[in-house]
Design goal:
Order of helices and strands: HHHHHHHEEHHH
Radius of gyration: 19 Å
Distance between the termini: 39 Å
Largest sheet: 2 strands, antiparallel
Number of strands: 2
Strand order of the largest sheet: 1-2
Structural class: mainly alpha
Shape: globular
């Protein structure tokens, strides 16, 4: 519901209510709804359409689909975090909790995790080591033109900010990567 707060910050209460009502009506007409359909119908941007689609999925108004991209992202989250949970996964991946749950179920089907009763995960494989994180950092550096700032690593590797800062410093000192827009007082 945090995402809905963003909608309420950008639009009037009546506008948000109308958008949600129109999206719900669209979901009833079209069962295999996607965020693109919402964007096209309501004439809104990607961010707003994604928020409304996640809301529909969380409220059982739409059926979520889990793409290979989200499964890879969920795998990275599970392997790169010491104590992965459903709520934290939804927050770090910026998706709704129901979609995060479907990703969890898919990861369980693939034998990567076992879901606990409190919706935490028990990994069936070992957690990513520092060497694994460095390999992932190198791939991020190649993809993003030698950049390694912590915000980028948090967003792409789904790691916590403290680990991201340490990994960024390692990348800068040992791999020749750079922080874009680094604060002057940190130099």
């Amino acid at each position: 519901m945090i995402d809905l707060e963003l909608l309420y910050q950008n639009y009037e209460f009546e506008e948000v209510s109308m958008m949600l009502a129109r999206a719900l009506a669209l979901a009833r007409r079209k069962p295999q709804l996607s965020w693109f359909d919402i964007q096209d119908e309501l004439k809104i941007g990607f961010g707003e359409a994604k928020i409304i689609w996640d809301w529909l999925v969380d409220e059982h108004g739409a059926t979520p689909r889990v793409s290979e991209h989200w499964i890879r992202a969920g795998r990275a989250y599970v392997l790169n975090n010491p104590f992965p949970t459903l709520e934290d996964m939804a927050i770090k991946m910026a998706i709704g909790e129901r979609r995060a749950f479907f990703i969890m179920q898919e990861l369980e089907k693939r034998g990567l995790i076992k879901i606990q009763s409190d919706f935490s995960f028990e990994r069936t494989r070992r957690m990513a080591s520092f060497g694994d994180l460095v390999r992932q950092l190198r791939r991020v550096g190649v993809k993003y033109n030698g950049r390694c700032e912590p915000q980028l690593l948090v967003r792409t590797l789904y790691i916590d900010p403290i680990t991201a800062v340490r990994l960024s410093q390692y990348g800068e000192e040992n791999l020749g990567l750079v922080w874009k827009e680094r604060q002057k007082d940190l130099l």
